[in-house]
Amino acid sequence: MDRLILFRHGKAEAESASGEDFDRRLAPRGWRETAEMGAKLADLGFLPDVVLVSPAARTRETWASLEPCFPRARAQFEEELYHAGSGSVRHEAERVGAGTGTVMIVGHNPGLQELAVQLLTEGGSPASLIVRAARQFPTATAAVFLIDANGRPAFDGLFFPERGD
Questions:
Q1: Over residues 120-132, mean pLDDT
Q2: Residue 60 maps to a domain
Q3: Domain containing 44 — which CATH number?
Q4: What residues form DSSP beta bridges with 8?
Q5: Cβ atoms of 8 and 139 closer than 8 Å
Q6: Cα torsion 12, 117, 145, 150: sign
Q7: Containing domain of residue 108, as a range?
Q8: Could you tell me the CA-to-CA distances from 137 to 20, 75, 84, 146 in Å, in that order?
Q9: Of 10, 32, 81, 123, which sees the most CB atoms within 10 A?
Q10: What is the pLDDT of residue 165?
Q11: CA distance 102 to 72
Q12: Total domains in the fold of the chain
């Protein structure tokens, strides 16, 4: 894997009809912000080859919103990504990333945020950037890292959605 994109799902409804967290769907703002963020990433040339998606409703819908921006990406729905900690997220990325250019993970906090902070720290990013990512990693945020041949990360971008409401 040459690049890793951590993408937090879009803004979800507070509750699902079933009452289960797993079934929470995207709110209208979630659909809008994820589509905008997908277009931004694609415009910048951050094009995933493989996308690992948590099977929860809100992450599936996030991928549905992103997919038109990344028509060549191959999506895989991974049970392990629902409620995954940072170590599990990283393991899944590395497992699938061998021989792959860019891997995107569409998942949840706190695992994605914790992994972003860990990768920023490992990559020697400025303290101000690490603190910013540790303090805020809202829905529809994307953190992008270059990964060298030895698996070491280097910061390549942190993108927050533009809040229009």
A1: 97
A2: yes
A3: 3.40.50.1240
A4: 107
A5: yes
A6: negative
A7: 3-159
A8: 23, 23, 16, 19
A9: 10
A10: 47
A11: 12
A12: 1
Q: Could you tell me the two tokens for 79?
A: 């049970």
Question: Tokens 């990344």 map to which residue?
Answer: 70
pLDDT in tens, 94-110: 999 888 999 999 999 99
Contact in structure between 25 and 57 (CB atoms under 8 Å): yes
Helix axes 111-122, 86-97, angle to 10 degrees: 70
C-beta of residue 144 within 8 angstroms of C-beta of residue 45: no
What is the residue whose two structure tokens read 């497992």? 95
Q: What angle do CA 140, 145, 150 make, to 5 degrees?
A: 150
pLDDT at 52 over 60: yes
| Residue 164 in domain | no
**Residue at token pair 């992994």:** 115
Is 13 contained in some domain? yes
**Are 53 and 75 spatial neighbours (Cβ–Cβ below 8 Å)?**
yes
Site of tokens 């931004």: 40
Q: Given this model, what pLDDT does residue 162 score?
A: 86
